[in-house]
């Protein structure tokens, strides 16, 4: 081994052994045995040639699933079971390929040059007939062919059970009720094979190849009544006044029934029939209740209830503030068995019901519409996020229910609907919030998003910021809701790669193309929300010409052309000052920039909105309501020269709002063409 240039054992998984001279060979050194060389051997489980590189390798040639479904399974009177097969795609490895020939109208099954006369997959044996030529002198001498039977053990692969189980794609024991055993000879370890677990029989090499063994058919297995179960059995004693008869293999009465016993039995049967008629309904209801409980337990486990309980128990909040898991009965009672009249909303992630709990709390109960695994994971995600959040502008989570196919979330009921409903309500309703209220709602929304991004214990990106997800309570305070698409971000990361989710019109084009989710994606959606407040138009709207347009693109184009006042809502023109319109438009333009690195953070947005809100409150306290405020229509009467000179300062950068020379506005087609150059 010291002289690597001439060392013979070059393959991995080899061992070197010194070879000593035998007693028949003359030895040196005073007649004492001495080494006369060395030899190389592959270690167990790695057969091959140890004298060539990579000559010893573990067995990877087993394919546990046949590629064909209509395989021929019989040759003559011999049933050929997998892993053996007669046709391509029907056997697990080349060594298990058998040939079925038809000689003089009788089928013969052959393996190489030997005839197969029987096989037992369960015991791992195959019977062969070998033919040996024996010369004898009978009338001048002739060759006589004498056949003898040979029972051969075989292994699925030359691997240990531990090695085979590590490679699940090539593991032979695919049946649920199977196990791996070693195959040894008198001198060496060969490999492994599969057997059925105790209490089962059949072929362990196919998934559905096992069947339960009915142990109760075996004689005298129980000294009483035998009850067969899957994979096992159990025994019960013979009923009173009976004993086990070994000859009949059943319980028999020890003595003849008396007349009194017969009368008692007759009366008992009569009363039993009467009793049964009164208790049938009760038993049926009890059975239904039991079945429901079992279904709920199954759903609880499927919906990862144990994991959620563990997460909630490890939460650092106090017991009174902690979210809890509700029973389905509580929520059915709260919603009158989920009466359709209790539905208060339908969204992309589920249906929302209004309900009243036993403690008189009014709640909103969210029921997911899809029961796929991805929806369950999304549900767990929303619970995990909301249990960590405690903010006055984020909807409060009371708990959840896991006893249904579709998981349920229980929120605090927010009574005044969503910002979208108020913004786009029919003008004939006669109700509208003031411009000051909308500025306050925008500020509260920015506070909630800024908290999620930078103040929560783990940064959270909402990923679906829109006006319909901003709920309003009885005081019209903003409550950010619907965290079904949200993602948590590790402390040491600034972005994550995800499948694109969100609502068109609010969706960040950079995130759409790169799939890199970061806080600037929520900033873009917030910018669309600001434009929605200014223009009172939906993110995707139909123009007068009948074409579908994107609101953010429409806003940026008008801003570029210096025509912002022509599209601002009449209520905004009437109630807002010129400075406020310029400031909100500037902030929206900054949030809607194509490249995320050019957008402000949510913290900066919150500070800008706070400044704007403070200025408005100060101006309202300083003088009459309309003092210092542009009169209706005054913005539209400004000269074009003055309009071109108007600008606003935001985050240290001067942005021209009214000039047609703005370079930050793009058409929708330009925006998506430009985003194609963003590195992915």
From TrEMBL:
Regarding the membrane, this protein is recorded as: Single-pass type I membrane protein
Location comes to:
Membrane
Enumerate the Gene Ontology biological process terms: cell surface receptor signaling pathway
A single GO cellular-component term from the record reads: plasma membrane
In terms of Pfam families, this protein maps to:
EGF_CA, GUB_WAK_bind, Pkinase
What keyword terms does UniProt attach to this protein?
ATP-binding, Disulfide bond, EGF-like domain, Glycoprotein, Kinase, Membrane, Nucleotide-binding, Serine/threonine-protein kinase, Signal, Transferase, Transmembrane, Transmembrane helix
Which residues participate in ATP binding?
367
Report the GO molecular function annotations. ATP binding; calcium ion binding; polysaccharide binding; protein serine/threonine kinase activity
Database matches in InterPro entries: EGF (IPR000742), EGF-like_Ca-bd_dom (IPR001881), EGF_Ca-bd_CS (IPR018097), Growth_fac_rcpt_cys_sf (IPR009030), Kinase-like_dom_sf (IPR011009), NOTCH1_EGF-like (IPR049883), Prot_kinase_dom (IPR000719), Protein_kinase_ATP_BS (IPR017441)
Instruction: Report domain Protein kinase positions.
Output: 338-612
- Residue ranges annotated as transmembrane are 259-284
* Ranges for region Disordered: 610-646
> Could you identify this protein by its name?
Protein kinase domain-containing protein
Upper lineage is: Eukaryota, Viridiplantae, Streptophyta, Embryophyta, Tracheophyta
């Amino acid at each position: 081994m010291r002289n690597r240039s001439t060392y013979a054992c070059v393959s991995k998984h080899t061992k070197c052994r010194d070879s000593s001279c035998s007693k028949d060979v003359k030895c040196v050194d005073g007649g004492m045995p001495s080494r006369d060389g060395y030899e190389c051997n592959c270690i167990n489980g790695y057969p091959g040639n140890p004298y060539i590189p990579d000559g010893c390798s573990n067995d990877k040639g087993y394919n546990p699933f046949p590629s064909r479904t209509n395989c021929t399974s019989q040759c003559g009177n011999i049933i050929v079971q997998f892993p053996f097969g007669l046709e391509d795609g029907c056997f697990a490895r080349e060594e298990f390929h058998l040939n079925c020939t038809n000689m003089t109208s009788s089928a013969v099954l052959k393996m190489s040059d030997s005839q197969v006369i029987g096989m037992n997959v369960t015991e791992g044996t195959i019977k062969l007939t070998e033919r040996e030529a024996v010369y004898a002198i009978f009338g001048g001498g002739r060759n006589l062919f004498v056949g003898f039977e040979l029972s051969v053990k075989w292994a699925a692969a030359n691997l240990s059970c531990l090695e085979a189980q590590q490679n699940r794609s090539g593991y032979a024991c695919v049946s649920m009720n199977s196990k791996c055993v070693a195959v040894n000879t008198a001198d060496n370890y060969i490999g492994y094979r599969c057997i059925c677990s105790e209490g089962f029989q059949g072929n362990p090499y196919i998934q559905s190849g096992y069947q339960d063994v009915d142990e109760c058919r075996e004689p005298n297995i129980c000294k009483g009544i035998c009850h067969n179960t899957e994979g096992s059995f159990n025994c019960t004693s013979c009923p009173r006044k009976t004993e086990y008869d070994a000859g009949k293999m059943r319980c028999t009465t020890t003595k003849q029934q008396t007349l009194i016993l017969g009368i008692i039995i007759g009366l008992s049967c009569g009363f039993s029939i009467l009793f049964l008629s009164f208790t049938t309904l009760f038993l049926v209801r009890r059975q239904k209740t039991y079945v429901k409980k079992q279904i709920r337990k199954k759903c609880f486990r499927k919906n990862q209830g144990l994991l959620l309980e563990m997460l909630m128990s490890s939460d650092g909040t106090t017991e009174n503030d902690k979210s809890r898991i509700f029973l389905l009965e509580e929520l059915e009672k709260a919603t009158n068995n989920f009466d359709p009249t209790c539905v208060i909303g339908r969204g992309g992630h589920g249906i929302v019901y209004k309900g009243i709990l036993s403690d008189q709390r009014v709640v909103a109960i969210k029921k997911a519409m899809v029961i796929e695994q991805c929806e369950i994971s999304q549900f767990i995600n929303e619970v995990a996020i909301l249990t960590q959040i405690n903010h006055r502008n984020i909807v409060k989570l009371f708990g959840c229910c896991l006893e249904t196919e579709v998981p349920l979330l229980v929120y605090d009921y927010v009574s005044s609907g969503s910002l979208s409903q108020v913004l786009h309500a029919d003008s004939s309703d006669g109700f509208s919030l003031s411009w000051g209220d909308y500025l306050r709602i925008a500020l509260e929304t920015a506070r909630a998003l800024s908290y999620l991004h930078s103040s929560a214990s783990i940064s959270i990106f909402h990923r679906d910021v829109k006006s319909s997800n901003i709920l309003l309570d009885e005081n019209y305070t903003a409550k950010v809701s619907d965290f079904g698409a949200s993602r948590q971000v590790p402390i040491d990361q600034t972005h994550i790669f995800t499948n694109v989710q969100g609502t068109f019109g609010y969706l960040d084009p950079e995130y759409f193309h790169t799939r890199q989710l970061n806080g600037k994606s929520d900033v873009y959606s917030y910018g669309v929300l600001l434009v929605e407040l200014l223009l009172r138009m939906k993110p995707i709207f139909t123009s007068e010409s009948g074409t579908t347009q994107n609101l953010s693109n429409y806003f940026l184009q008008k801003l570029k052309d210096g025509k912002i006042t022509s599209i601002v809502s009449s209520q905004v023109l009437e109630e807002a000052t010129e400075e406020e319109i310029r400031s909100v438009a500037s902030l929206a333009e900054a949030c809607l920039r194509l490249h995320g690195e050019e957008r402000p953070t949510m913290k900066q947005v919150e500070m800008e909105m706070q400044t704007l809100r403070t200025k408005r409150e100060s101006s309202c306290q300083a003088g009459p309501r309309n003092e210092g405020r542009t009169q209706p229509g005054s913005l539209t009467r400004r000269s074009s020269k003055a309009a071109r000179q108007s600008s606003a300062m935001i985050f240290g950068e001067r942005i021209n709002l009214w000039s047609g020379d703005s370079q930050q506005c793009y058409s929708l087609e330009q925006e998506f063409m430009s985003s194609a150059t963003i590195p992915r």
